[in-house]
Amino acid sequence: MTDNSTPSPGTGVRFRSDVSVELVKHDASDTDVLFAARVSTVGEQSIDELGKDPERSKGLINYLMRDRHGSPFEHNSMTFLVSAPIFVFREFMRHRVGWSYNEESGRYRELQPVFYVPGEDRKLVQQGRPGKYEFVPGTPEQHKITTEEMETTYREAYASYRRMLDAGVAREVARAVLPVGLFSSMYATCNARSLMHFLSLRTQHEQAKVASFPQREIEMVAERMEAHWAGLMPLTYAAFNANGRIAP
Ligand SMILES: Cc1cc2nc3c(=O)[nH]c(=O)nc-3n(C[C@H](O)[C@H](O)[C@H](O)COP(=O)(O)OP(=O)(O)OC[C@H]3O[C@@H](n4cnc5c(N)ncnc54)[C@H](O)[C@@H]3O)c2cc1C
């Protein structure tokens, strides 16, 4: 796992501006879509037809996507190891359908002092009203205050957590002082259909027919997942984009 965190001298506290997404396990290809779809017309022989006529296969996937025949896109699986701040996981776990999650425990293990601080390229200022706002870059002063306030608060919160643990207080009680900028890790397993639904809501993309306005940090996770998936299922990925990134 990539860890670009910066250690803070003397405290063990580390700060990160990135997220990481590793594809740890997968059984996912365009042919999984094809055999599932063709059972409709050729029954159990559909598995023998896989190598035949690539142009027809491409056309079939595009038709399924366009007409929103979604179930053939469910016969595959991808497991990601995600490392991101807790506030990203809160948003992520709202995706209930076609996703399985397991996250590290703050009851059974001591939480590590790794915290999120926005990088220089993170737009800091929101303009407009909810649902119709845009983000613009922050000034150097706004970046400075953001970094300083976050780092100070994180250090204090983690020191407080440690003092309680040292005094014998249970991890599940002491963790209450830790902020949502703390990094956590989880395994998330999905299929192409549930991933497409997630991507349609958690990315901004020029080919999207329906715009979404996700928080940048969950979008960073989504973009990394998308890159893994695009390599595994290129025909499905192309059809998703060509049809406006609407999940079937
Ligand atoms: C930009 C953005 C802003 C958001 N802001 C907020 C916010 O301010 N507050 C907040 O609480 N949430 C917010 N959310 C979360 C949002 O409301 C959804 O919970 C989240 O996007 C998951 O979407 P989903 O329910 O479609 O996904 P899933 O839970 O994966 O469901 C997939 C699909 O299954 C069907 N489905 C699932 N459960 C049901 C059900 N119980 N009944 C009927 N059909 C069902 C629906 O068709 C659904 O689209 C936001 C999401 C986005 C993308």
TrEMBL record:
Signal peptide: none annotated. Keywords: FAD, Flavoprotein, Methyltransferase, NADP, Nucleotide biosynthesis, Transferase. Its cofactor is FAD. It catalyses: dUMP + (6R)-5,10-methylene-5,6,7,8-tetrahydrofolate + NADPH + H(+) = dTMP + (6S)-5,6,7,8-tetrahydrofolate + NADP(+). CDD domains: ThyX. PROSITE patterns: THYX (PS51331). GO terms for molecular function: flavin adenine dinucleotide binding; NADPH binding; thymidylate synthase (FAD) activity; thymidylate synthase activity. FAD binds at S71, R94, H95, R96, E103, N191, A192, R193, H197. Binds 4 FAD per tetramer. Each FAD binding site is formed by three monomers. Belongs to the thymidylate synthase ThyX family. Homotetramer. This is Flavin-dependent thymidylate synthase.
